[in-house]
């Protein structure tokens, strides 16, 4: 089985599942390429109406970038190349002309929260936890997540998530406006499908028109430029001793 699973339902829902349970569904270059391919397919396929991103198993939605792979990136230039690649993918996800949903089936950590921030809606299992923990590794959000989050949440709530680098429960996330709906762990996919139905019932043209209105707002706010300024800032921090030492400590503790 591949690192990314794809399922299409008869009513137009596309399920993209990150399938790296042994790596807590971490992102590597293969997963990035699969994300890009699926986003491009969904954009061009008229029968696809909603894209749902989730993780395999019930422990992790996505633990962010695969540190065992990306720890080999040492310089600002090496880091920027990787960060910008995923930044482009997440900008295309954010501006997809179809509704997008992040289904947090488990922990969403670091870059996993950035993927969730790129989606229109974030729903979660009752036991899910999430955290923009990049600060604990001596870096900031590196895929444009802060810029996207600031478009989705009030300033104080976004900064609470970003600046504390804490982990939050799904219930706390709902109070902060990051999580829109919480489902039971036992019936997670079924409850999510039921919730999505109200969107699927609308015409593709109506869904695309509303999404394009949002994209116009983000374009006027220079979202893409802000995301890449953020990515550049992260790449500067990436080559610091603080970051490399923190990552090495994390890997040694595993």
Description:
The protein has 254 residues and is α/β, with parallel strands linked by helices. The chain has one domain (4-201): 2-enoyl-CoA Hydratase, Chain A, domain 1. 52% of the residues lie in helices and 16% in strands. It is built from 11 helices and 10 strands. The chain has helices spanning 29-44, 67-70, 76-94, 111-118, 145-152, 155-164, 170-176, 188-200, 204-220, 223-238, 241-253; strands at 4-8, 13-18, 50-55, 60-62, 100-104, 107-109, 121-125, 129-131, 168-169, 181-183. The strands form 2 sheets. A 6-stranded mixed beta sheet has the order 1-2-3-5-7-10, sandwiched between helices. Helix 1 packs parallel to helix 3, helix 4 (111-118) packs across helix 5 (145-152) and helix 5 crosses helix 10 (223-238). One of its GO terms (molecular function) is methyl/ethyl malonyl-CoA decarboxylase activity. It comes from Schinkia azotoformans MEV2011. Its EC number is 4.1.1.94. It is found in: Cytoplasm, Cytosol. InterPro entries: ClpP/crotonase-like_dom_sf, Enoyl-CoA_hyd/isom_CS, Enoyl-CoA_hydra/iso.
Draw up the topology in text:
Layout: E1 4-8, E2 13-18, H1 29-44, E3 50-55, E4 60-62, H2 67-70, H3 76-94, E5 100-104, E6 107-109, H4 111-118, E7 121-125, E8 129-131, H5 145-152, H6 155-164, E9 168-169, H7 170-176, E10 181-183, H8 188-200, H9 204-220, H10 223-238, H11 241-253
Parallel strand pairs: 2-3, 3-5, 4-6, 5-7, 6-8, 7-10
Antiparallel strand pairs: 1-2, 8-9
Family: Belongs to the enoyl-CoA hydratase/isomerase family.
Subcellular location: Cytoplasm, Cytosol
GO biological process, one term: fatty acid beta-oxidation
